[in-house]
């Protein structure tokens, strides 16, 4: 297990800035997911940690050692790519053993490590088969086995499940998490898929346009997004954002939506233009609700339904029970759970400081 520290990491490719002054501590033994849309800088960050890209400026420390200028082979880190990069003419056994042979590990130790990795990944039955004819899931396990046998300081994974179909990707998410629990090694995993991040991560790092916007547990990221972007990116459906009448002053515990008062947790800052953020499951249908609208769609999802309501402030999505659907055209009022509302400065799109926030004890649903 290793602690990885990024200090003011910056990477430019010509005039393009891929990663901008990123500082982050990845604690030993944690499963950390770098999450964000394509082009946000997550893969470049991972490649700099691996030594496959050298930063323009800043530092990378592994267990306190400055490795910023060291190449990949000097960092004792295992990298698993989206494309498996296996040797199709070799057997599974020889693919897994390949890095150990290059390190001149003894034959007896190679056999021991390969057998142990194969048992952990449940691929003993294919050790003597060529990799060229294997399924995507088996090839993924072989790629993981090749990383495991090296016993590295950390595992770095760049969208390793991206080529798998949805059902198998879900299964492999569970397998990767079980593998992490068994090994206890520091893992840094890149994906653009929030479902993968929520299923596996101890900590999620949300990135956009080369910057880290928020880092924290899945519950923290979901319940208290620090920017409008994070609230929109995390959650399915995403957080609703409604423009407040006027602004807000420090000490306020009420805002106006379309002239109607709405109670909110105390706000500790002034802002001239404000957005109220609230998750669909924290809105409820209420004949006397302050916000009025009409149902335009009812998305049935088995365990629950999502009502799509058109209001004067825009589309609002409301999570309802599986038997609580309403036909299109129904006029409804909407009310909000006070303790679950958040206020954002519309100019900066950042969360305004306010009353102490705690993650709900029951966890609540997160998409």
Automatic annotation (TrEMBL):
Q: Does the keyword ATP-binding apply?
A: yes
Q: Record's GO cellular component, any one? A: ATP-binding cassette (ABC) transporter complex, substrate-binding subunit-containing
* Alphabetical keyword list: ATP-binding, Cell inner membrane, Cell membrane, Hydrolase, Membrane, Nucleotide-binding, Translocase, Transport
CDD domains for the chain: ABC_MalK_N
Q: Which residues form the ABC transporter domain?
A: 4-234
Entry-linked Pfam families: ABC_tran, TOBE_2
Highest taxon above the source species? Bacteria
**MF-aspect GO terms:** ABC-type transporter activity; ATP binding; ATP hydrolysis activity
Enzyme Commission no? 3.6.3.-
What PROSITE patterns would the database entry show? ABC_TRANSPORTER_1, ABC_TRANSPORTER_2
Q: Name one GO biological process term.
A: carbohydrate transport
Indicate the enzyme's highest-level EC class. hydrolase
Q: Which SMART domains match?
A: AAA (SM00382)
Q: What is this protein called?
A: Trehalose import ATP-binding protein SugC
| Provenance organism | Paraburkholderia saeva
């Amino acid at each position: 297990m290793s602690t990885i520290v990024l200090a003011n990491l910056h990477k430019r490719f010509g005039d393009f800035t891929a990663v901008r002054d990123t500082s982050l501590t990845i604690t030993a033994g944690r499963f950390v997911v770098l999450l964000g849309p394509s082009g946000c800088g997550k893969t470049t960050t991972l490649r700099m940690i691996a030594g496959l890209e050298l930063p323009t400026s800043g530092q990378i420390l592994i267990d306190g050692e400055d490795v910023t200028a060291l190449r990949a082979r000097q960092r004792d880190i295992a990298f698993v790519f989206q494309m498996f990069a296996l040797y199709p003419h070799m057997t599974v056994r020889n693919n897994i053993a390949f890095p150990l042979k290059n390190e001149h590990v003894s034959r007896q130790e190679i056999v021991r490590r390969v057998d142990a990795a194969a048992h952990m990944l449940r691929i003993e039955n294919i050790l003597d088969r060529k990799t060229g004819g294997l399924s995507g899931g088996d090839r993924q396990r072989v790629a993981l086995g090749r990383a495991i046998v090296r016993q590295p300081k950390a595992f770095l994974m760049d969208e390793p499940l991206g080529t798998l179909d949805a059902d198998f990707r879900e299964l492999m998410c569970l397998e990767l998490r079980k593998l992490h629990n068994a090994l206890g090694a520091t893992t840094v995993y890149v994906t653009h898929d929030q479902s993968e991040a929520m299923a596996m991560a101890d900590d999620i790092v949300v990135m956009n346009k080369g910057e880290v916007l928020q880092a924290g547990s899945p519950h923290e990221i979901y319940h208290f997004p620090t920017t409008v972007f994070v609230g929109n990116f995390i959650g399915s459906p995403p957080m609703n954002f409604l423009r407040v009448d006027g602004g807000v002053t420090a000490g306020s515990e009420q805002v106006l939506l379309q002239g109607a008062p709405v109670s909110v947790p105390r706000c500790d800052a002034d802002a001239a233009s404000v957005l109220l953020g609230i998750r669909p499951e924290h809105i409820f249908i209420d004949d006397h609700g302050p916000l009025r609208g009409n149902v335009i769609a009812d998305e049935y999802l088995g365990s629950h339904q999502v009502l799509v309501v058109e209001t004067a402030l825009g589309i609002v999505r409301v999570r309802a029970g599986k038997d609580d659907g309403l036909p299109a055209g129904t006029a409804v009022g909407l009310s909000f759970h006070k303790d679950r509302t958040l206020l954002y400065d519309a100019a900066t799109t950042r969360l305004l400081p306010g009353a102490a926030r705690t993650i709900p004890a029951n966890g609540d649903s997160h998409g």
